[in-house]
Design brief:
By secondary structure, this protein is of the alpha/beta class. The protein folds into two domains: about 5-245, Peroxisomal Thiolase, Chain A, domain 1 (3-Layer(aba) Sandwich), CATH 3.40.47.10; about 255-405, 3-Layer(aba) Sandwich (Peroxisomal Thiolase, Chain A, domain 1). It has 13 helices and 14 strands. Helix 10 (about 275-285) crosses helix 11.
Amino acid sequence: MKRVVITGLGCVTPVGNTVEAFWDSLKNGVCGIDIIEGIDTSDLKVKIAAQVKNYDASLYMEKSEIRRSDKFVQFAIGAASQAVADSGIKDNVDSERFGVYFGSGIGGFETFVSECDTMREKGAGRVSPLFIPKMISNIGAGNIAIKFGAKGPCVSVTTACATGTTAIGEALRTIRGGYADAIIAGGVDASVAPLAIAGFTNCTALTENPDPKSACCPFDKRRSGFIMGEGAGALILEEYEHAKARGAKIYAEVVGYGSTCDAFHVTAPDSEAVQSARAISDCYAECGEVDATRIYINAHGTSTPLNDKTETKAIKRVFGEKAYDIHISSTKSMTGHLLGAAGAVEAIASILALREGIVPPTIGYSEPDEECDLNYTPNKAVKTEIELAMSTSLGFGGHNACVGFKKI
């Protein structure tokens, strides 16, 4: 199989709208969770979230494009533009061998709600002709392909909270198989809106803890639900020889991918963790044997009662007693849960941890849970040699995915 490397990174997140700002925040344990701004929360039980701050879409899009696109597309274009510029790929690849694998868990949620309100209040004739092309979840991938002339495979992945990771993994397989030379891969969501918050709250997924600093505490005994977040992450995956021939900067090699489904429940993970463990195991098998003390796992770590203990069990199923030697953290403790963007943003964190030998912390951790007894890197980053970085994602519907990266 062809080797695949990462040659560009880009992100828009609650802790920074560039890769440099994002990584600096993670290393320093900066929390991006705060009181929700810009929407009416008076009727909501949950009043905190991890929102993107000070994002300027005009850095990447014309004013007319911004007006005609939902916020989730604006985030996607921002992250993808950063990654493409970082890689220098645009003018150095055959457009028909240049693809996009970019997903969203929900799509244009703000547009959907706004146009529903318009129809109810003003009638069907007033619904915008842009409603559908602004709202459908594949339009992020479509707009990225249009902007950068990527005429190869263009796939919009939707595997709920595993979307970003699945997009990276499927892009890996596409390049390995010889169907593309480079792919913009990642995920996006922008759904911090009253209807979404109410829906997640009423299915008991969100915490109702009102304190932004303690509400998200992955693997901690006090955990009570996840924090809604928003943002986008984009990575340039490129065939190794193609990247080497053009003298590209290489961040890491993508060395493994696993994808499974619990086939168990629409929201809850299977507490036996058999299939989530298999996703990790399948990925690790492709990565090659590595001493556990040199492995970093960026865990899904949502701060929900079920996810964190299930994910802990999955890691133990794969690594046995060696699981206690692995460096693990949940960067969601700082970013909140970015839904379809989570896996992509966390893959970026994994790659940078690998490059710099720094494990970002799980902040807000203070009360150990006997069912979550691994090394979660509590509260402060740790400097250590890392040989393999893995990122796991476990989504609603039972979607499990894991990707692995090594230095090259």
